[in-house]
Amino acid sequence: MAADSLLSGLLDIRAAAVPFLVAAVAFYFMVEQLSYHRKKGPLPGPPLVVPFLGSVAPMIRDPTAFWDAQAARAKRSGAGLAADFLVGRFIVFIRDSELSQRVFANVRPDAFHLIGHPFGKKLFGDHNLIYMFGEEHKDLRRRIAPNFSPRALSTYAALQQRVILAHLRRWLDADGKGGAFPIRVPCRDMNLETSQTVFAGPYLSEEARRRFAQDYNLFNVGLMAMPVDLPGFAFRRARQGVARLVRTLGECARESKARMRAGGEPECLVDFWMQDTLREIEEAAAAGRPPPAHTDDEEIGGFMFDFLFAAQDASTSSLCWAVSALDSHPEVLARVRAEVAAAWSPESGEPITAEKIQGMRYTQAVAREVVRHRPPATLVPHIAGEAFQLTEWYTVPKGAIVFPSVYESSFQGFPDAEAFDPERFFCESRREDVAFKRNFLAFGAGPHQCLGQRYALNHLVLFMALFVSVVDFRRERTPGCDDPVYMPTIVPKDGCAVHLKQRCANFPSF
Q1: How far apart are alpha carbons 340 and 306 in whole angstroms?
Q2: Mean pLDDT over residues 282-289, rounded?
Q3: Which residues are noted in the entry as heme-binding (predicted)?
Q4: Of 141, 145, 130, 143, which Cα lies nearest the Cα of 291?
Q5: Pick the residue with more confidence: 293 or 374?
Q6: For residue 432, what are the contacts with CB-CB under 8 A and spacing of at least 6?
Q7: Is residue 15 helix, strand or coil?
């Protein structure tokens, strides 16, 4: 009898709680919708949003379609802006180039904070180059700049070419097994080895490189996953992988310091960096000052990871689009081949020198057009640290994530922008790189503009020069093969499948 009474009481409590829970959920839904509409103001956007999650499901399911829809909404409205909601965050998509420039120019504590990824601080950690402001940021960029000097780039060029040729040899051997050969993953693997070799040189053992590749793959998967920071989820594995990568690169910095202190010559990026860092540490010690900021080994490892992240997937994207564009434009391919052949031969037994790279003006124009036509990182997310008046009629609310679209900017201003036309950067009478500089945002703008853009363009030029010289190729054309998909940077939908065969009589070796 007592048990029956207890059960009856519990059922009564549950029945009474149901209306309360329904009312609480309804109230939460109403408050969230009102908050969203208050922040959205006159911007185009969904009339209602899914509580908390917002549009995250369609974004993860098909990122290309999601961001295309944002761009179309911003264009149709004439505002150049669109609003949406993602995992508890109000977002603003920016299509207009001048508004994107305003964001890039106002990266400071009381305006916009570059975040690189909507949940980047959880992935990369708080102490990261992209999260810095003001004098601290300027000072660190000043100290990093010599890593991309002409002397340093010349050193890297020889390393890059050895890695590229080794991978092209593997590609040719793999393609000989029959069928089209998708190059996206092989390009990614080649770029990872290039980054390891150029950035860390002799300080990574073969075993360390293998673990490095595994952890970087975990990071890549986590970038595109739901941001669930719990055991067993891809996002947590990515965060743990980043921590291991930073420790590994920090150990490389420690070993480089020891070698540079002993009088060794720089062989890779960390050597150039540590050579200058040791000089500054010694000058500080002689003056009785503490060591300069940001000279700790693991902190330097974190900055090196920033370089790796910036170079890796963006470069993979550009190499794939370059191959696709050269196949689609045989007249461009012929001119690149002729220019490279006039400067270098696969039978020379020597790498392409820095001077010869600089002389390949048309190939450089092709590289810039590849990056303009298909900017790898299409969006550069920032968070509003404070409310910011972006236009006369719209203020971005504090805490909103804004997404300047460098992809959309690439198709504004430039004449016949949809066409792949390297002449726009080659012909002296056009000089579109000057006339439409404010629309060419693939490397960003303002205080956080990419420090390594010369390295990135050199890598693309070197890859094209070697690829067209040693390989005959044909794109496997299928419907939609060149539709952009996010991986996490944009790449051809089919992974850029090609048929390859050796073009030169003797494969280069040096």
Answers
A1: 32
A2: 95
A3: 450
A4: 143
A5: 374
A6: 414, 415, 424, 425
A7: helix
Which distant-in-sequence residues (6+ apart) come within 8 Å of 47 by Cβ? none
Beta carbons within 10 angstroms of residue 88's beta carbon:
12
Helices marked H in 381-445 — which ranges? 406-409, 423-426, 432-435
H-helix or E-strand containing 492? strand 490-492
Average model confidence (pLDDT) for the chain? Answer: 92
Across 449-469, average pLDDT: 96
Please determine, for residue 391, whether its predicted confidence score (pLDDT) is greater than 80: yes
Of the chain, the percentage scoring pLDDT greater than 90 comes to 82
Amino acid letter for position 413: G
Q: Would you state the pLDDT for residue 179? A: 81
Q: Which of 128, 61, 59, 126 lies closest to 91, judged by CA?
A: 59
* Burial of 507: CB neighbours in 10 Å, binned 0-12, 13-18, 19+: middle
Record the tokens describing residue 420, joined without a space: 């792949």
Beta bridge partners of 472: 501
- Consult the annotation and say whether 496 binds a ligand: no
* Mean pLDDT of all residues in 159-169: 97
The yes-or-no verdict on residue 4 having pLDDT over 80 is no
pLDDT above 90 for 368: yes
Q: Which of 225, 194, 161, 188 is nearest to 495 (CA)?
A: 188
Q: Rounded CA gap, 292 and 357, in Å?
A: 36
pLDDT the model gives residue 419: 98
Report the distance separating Cα 127 and Cα 38, nearest Å.
33
Angle at 64 between CA 58 and CA 68, to 5 degrees: 95
| Packing angle, helices 150-175 and 269-286, rounded to 10 | 150
> Per the structure block, which two tokens stand in for 290?
């503490």
Residue 141, judged by CB atoms within 10 A of its CB (0-12, 13-18, 19+), counts as middle
171-184 mean pLDDT:
84
The residue behind tokens 């202190």 is: 261
Average the pLDDT over 88-101 and give the result.
Answer: 97
Q: Which of 143, 150, 154 is nearest to 274 (CA)?
A: 143
The amino acid present at 231, given as its one-letter code, is P
pLDDT at 312: 85
Tokens of 473: 């190729």
How far is Cα 455 from Cα 198, in angstroms, rounded to an integer? 10
- Say how far apart CA 9 and CA 161 lie, in whole Å: 78
Alpha carbon 263 to its chain's center: 35
**Average pLDDT estimate for 280-289:** 95
Cα 22 to Cα 104: distance, rounded to the nearest angstrom: 44
Distance CA 129, CA 131 (A): 5
Question: Distance between CA 217 and CA 238 in Å, rounded?
Answer: 8
Type and span of the H or E element at 65: helix 63-77
Two tokens, residue 164: 């590229």
- The 10 Å Cβ neighbour count of residue 265 is 9
